[in-house]
Write a structure and sequence with these properties.
It contains 9 helices and 8 strands. By secondary structure, it is of the alpha/beta class. It has one domain.
Length: 260
């Protein structure tokens, strides 16, 4: 196993998270102009389950793979005016769909089972619609369609990461990740020039290390779908996801390295 400068103690990371591996493959996606991406910004933002992060711990109550934070839309899409029944219409529609994409509410008021035995719904989801959908001219159904239409794979790129610097192990830990259209943004206490890790997903998956200068080339939406979302929600994976998975299986690559 070859270590490069800047990678922290593998044994220490294994104690913190579990198994350790290197991200094995990268995909490229088509890129639009910087101007168009800055004018139109929207992304599906996911929370990674992680016991060292506040939202990650809350996500772990629902899933060991991922939780959808929301579909963020930063610009007006249409000029539709808000309607009095928007909130209730959206609530009535999302209540039967939210758990299909792990779109859970961590709010205390949504913690107890609801009338239809729902848990983790629906005040947060409604608030997300008001903030990102209604105010940008979308009807309840239009925003819902955008939330659950997470494909095609080639239409989204990595545009958002929230990560924190872990001083003991000298590495950046990713807690939130977003794919869509827009200019890439990195927030949190991450240190530039240092490697990033993705906390393990599932019960006993490896931690993937990503060099800081290869975030967008390695952390692609197809990779995230195949290695995270599709592993828990296979019905969300179209044929393109399965074909990508087959490509991964057939590539002549070394197996991810695990700490011993």
């Amino acid at each position: 196993m070859i270590l490069t400068r800047g990678i922290p103690s593998l044994f220490g990371l294994q104690l913190l998270f579990g198994h350790l591996g290197f991200l094995p493959v990268a995909y490229s996606s088509s890129d639009s102009s910087l101007l168009s991406r800055s004018l139109h910004r929207q992304s599906h933002v996911f929370i990674l389950p992680d016991h060292t992060d506040e939202l990650g711990r809350k996500c772990l109550h629902f899933s060991h793979y991922f939780c959808l934070m929301s579909l963020w839309i930063k610009t007006r899409v249409k000029y539709r005016q808000p309607q009095p029944g928007d909130r209730e219409e959206f609530r009535s529609k999302v209540v039967s769909l939210y758990n299909q994409l792990n779109w859970f509410s961590f709010r205390e008021q949504d913690a107890a089972p609801g009338p239809n035995n729902t848990r983790g719904c629906c005040s947060y989801q409604v608030a997300s619609y008001i903030q990102h959908g209604q105010k940008n001219g979308l009807s309840p159904q239009e925003y819902l369609d955008k939330v659950f239409n997470i494909g095609p794979f080639g239409s989204k790129r990595l545009i958002f990461i929230k990560a924190k610097w872990h001083p003991r192990f000298c590495i950046n830990v990713i807690s939130q990740i977003g794919f869509g259209q827009g200019v890439f943004k990195l927030i949190g206490s991450a240190k530039k020039g240092r490697h990033f890790i993705i906390p393990p997903v599932g019960e006993s998956e490896p931690i993937f290390i990503v060099p800081s200068d290869e975030l967008q080339s390695m952390l692609t939406f197809p990779w995230f779908m195949v290695n995270v979302v599709c592993r828990e929600k296979p019905f969300l994976c179209p044929n393109s996801a399965r074909s990508i998975y087959e490509q991964l299986q057939n590539l002549d690559l070394d197996e991810p390295t695990e700490a011993t």
